[in-house]
Amino acid sequence: MSVGNQMTSDQINSRLSSLAIQMRELMHDISDLSTNVNGQGNGLAVLEAAGYSSEANPDNPGGVSDAQYALNMLSYLNTPASLYYGTATQPDEFNFDQELSQLWAGQ
Question: Treating both helix axes as pointing N-terminal to C-terminal, what angle do 9-38 and 66-85 enclose, rounded to 10 degrees?
């Protein structure tokens, strides 16, 4: 959508509804994945059992294992979902865009 293009109130309302539904579905999907991985309080073990390496990997930020890296990424995604559902607070500034950019695969 270009800046400055005149939209009608119906178009804006439709876009707002569409975005709200997409956000609700995305937050739900993220929350479900987090519950699936962390639901028993052993997310790292779940990821290792799923095939993620437990060995330190120098290619990952901080040299953490692939399992820990995946758990970190899931945590980064789950924080906005938790904020969305009102189950968490974000007291400090945190650049989710920057942290999650590692997963964009150049897109």
Answer: 130
Question: Which residue in the block uniquely carries the two structure tokens 């938790």?
Answer: 82
Helix ranges, the chain (H): 9-38, 43-49, 66-85, 96-100
Residues 6+ apart with CB under 8 A from 59: none
For residue 92 the two structure tokens come to 């400090």
- Going from the C-alpha of 92 to that of each of 43, 80, 98, the distances in angstroms are 24, 13, 15
Q: Decide if pLDDT at 90 tops 80.
A: no
Eight-class DSSP state of 104: S
Q: What is the pTM of this model?
A: 0.82
Given a contact cutoff of 8 angstroms between Cβ atoms, the answer to whether 88 and 80 are in contact is no
Each residue of 40-56: pLDDT tens digit? 999 999 999 999 999 99
Nearest Cα neighbor of 80 from 65, 71, 67, 90 is: 90
